[in-house]
Amino acid sequence: MNDGEMNDREWLYRIMLQAYPPAFRGTFGREMLLVYRAQRRDGVVDTRYWLASIADAAATAPRLWMDELRDGFHSAEGTMKTMGILSALAGLLEIANASVELRASAFGGRDVLSQTVLVFVIATASLLVVAGVALLFGGHAARRLAGIGAAACIGAFLLMLATRPMMSVAATGLGIAFPLVLWLSLYVSQRRAARGLVA
Amino acid sequence: MLPLAPATFDILLALADGEKHGYGIMKEVAARTNGAVQIGAGTLYGALKRLLASGVVEEIERDDPDDASGRRRYYRLTRHGLDVARAESWRLAKVVQDAHQKKLIPRRAG
Predict the structure, then answer these.
(1) Closest CA of chain B from A114, distance in Å
(2) Is A34 in the B-facing interface, judged by CB distances under 8 Å?
(3) Which domains does chain A possess?
(4) Interface confidence (ipTM) of the complex
(5) Is residue B76 exposed (0-12), middle (13-18) or buried (19+ Cβ within 10 Å)?
(6) What is the pLDDT of residues A10-60, one digit of tens each?
(7) A-chain residue closest to B43, CA distance
(8) Which of A18, A67, A160, B22 is least surrounded, with the fewest CB atoms within 10 Å of its CB?
(9) B positions 51-80 inside 8 Å of A (CB)
(10) What residues form DSSP beta bridges with B20?
(11) What is the pTM of this model?
């Protein structure tokens, strides 16, 4: 195999590096590429080398992905991104649920107060979706918005329970329990950041 | 931290006599074991990531004589890393001693 053909194979090594998690590639990707180039110069890159390298990547990449996911979840930023995704999903679920109830109440002849409360639930759930998206981008304003969204959501669902329980127990539980969890995670991550335990 | 994974201990052994870059570690391990142990790049840098995080190894950047376009990371044992390597060596020595006592390792002739 001549040097030109060897150089052509570097793309294959770069593709193989994609098996590793982004942060790991960011730290060690260039070093691994330098190792590959040195091995190529030393003439050890052959079919057996590729089989061994692929087997090595298959054996080591899953643990590194697990490490990275765990580290990401344990960092303040990772926790907030996870909570952002969950907030957006919970908000969308509540909007869909309340919209169905609102449509049903329009045909069922329910009172105006119930319909007003359902509209309020949709508005607060929309705020939760916006806050969830904002949390994905991070920042102090996003945390504040998420705190307000969670408080408004709890208020709306308590109001709904006080007037007339129309939505399912699961939906009501989610509408109250999830914002409480969101509040708690915002508080914990703020304390952690203040103590300098996490980035 | 003990016992160490075999590949991790091989890396610490390679660094025991001085700092090396990644490929230097791989070549030292292969040469010391007559090619019986070949550490892959994923295994090497995965282990180095954990060793760096636990303060066993530290990295230093240097100009790379083989690559004019940039610098290269070299790795060396910290004082704590040297203690860990010594502790693992003692542990393995005890294992070998036990194996001798149980006559699992034949005595060398002469």
Answers:
(1) 56
(2) yes
(3) 3-70 (no CATH), 75-195 (1.20.120)
(4) 0.88
(5) middle
(6) 999 999 999 999 999 999 999 999 999 999 999 999 999 999 999 999 999
(7) A60
(8) A18
(9) 64, 66-67, 70, 72-73
(10) B75
(11) 0.61
